[in-house]
Amino acid sequence: MYRIHICDDEENTCEQLFLMIEEYGKKQELNFEISVWYNGKTLCDHINSGEKIDLLFLDIELLDSNGIAVGKYIRDSLGDLRTVIVFVSHKSQYAMDLFQIQPLDFLLKPLTYCKVTEVLDIWQRRCLISNQTFEVKVGRNYHKIFFSDIYYLYSNNRKVIVVTNSGELEFYGKLKEIFQIVPDNFIMIHKSYVVNQDYIKEWSYESVKMFDEKELAISQAYRKDVRAKLIKMYKEKRDV
Questions:
Q1: CA 129 → CA 75, 106, 111, 176, 225, distances in Å?
Q2: How far apart are CA 158 and CA 179, in angstroms?
Q3: SS3 of 70, please?
Q4: Helix 113-130 crosses helix 11-28 at what angle (to 10 degrees)?
Q5: I need a labelling partner for 51 at 20 to 30 A (CA). Which of 12, 189, 206, 219 fits?
Q6: Tens digits of residue pLDDT in 52-82
Q7: Which parts of the chain fold into alpha helices (H)?
Q8: Per-residue pLDDT tens for 107-126?
């Protein structure tokens, strides 16, 4: 079962979204638990209780609070990088403010069933990727690692170190071989570093800062390619 939350102070928008998501779930034979919230404070209080949210449709212009502030609270204060956020707004000028929150998409009101289902399709594909794993041997033991848990990987001599949301794991291997099996949202920024773009907090031409605050240099040989991929990602999140 997937838990989907809608937070918008416009009752009509909430009702429309609820019905669209419900219809999509029936057509795709997916089990959704849909909850509606009309203000950001109540939503934040609920999230503080620890309940897992799979997908959140979040209005930016909430009357009681700013939706961007709610998104930053989820990402920064709670350290929750797994809840998928889709922002909703009457205005389209918020793209720069949204980058650090890493939303899946940005929907412009009035909403259409076509646009909402496109986002739900992308989210479902992302869910499939998030369940993919690869296996590594550490000493005598084998470990399965979810790709969605990986912030970045780097090589040190003959070892590869995987940095995840629960710590680090190192094993003997070659980073280039690992790069061949990771999903498309991973980028090689240096011969010694591969990063998950979903966990990039800030970026410039020379470096990226990850959500664990680690700043990683982009080597000159990779800068053009990395810049093109990050700009493409940014445009996809901005376009409506």
A1: 21, 21, 27, 20, 23
A2: 15
A3: helix
A4: 60
A5: 12
A6: 899 999 999 887 778 999 999 998 888 888 8
A7: 11-28, 40-48, 67-72, 95-98, 113-130, 175-179, 223-238
A8: 999 999 999 999 999 999 88
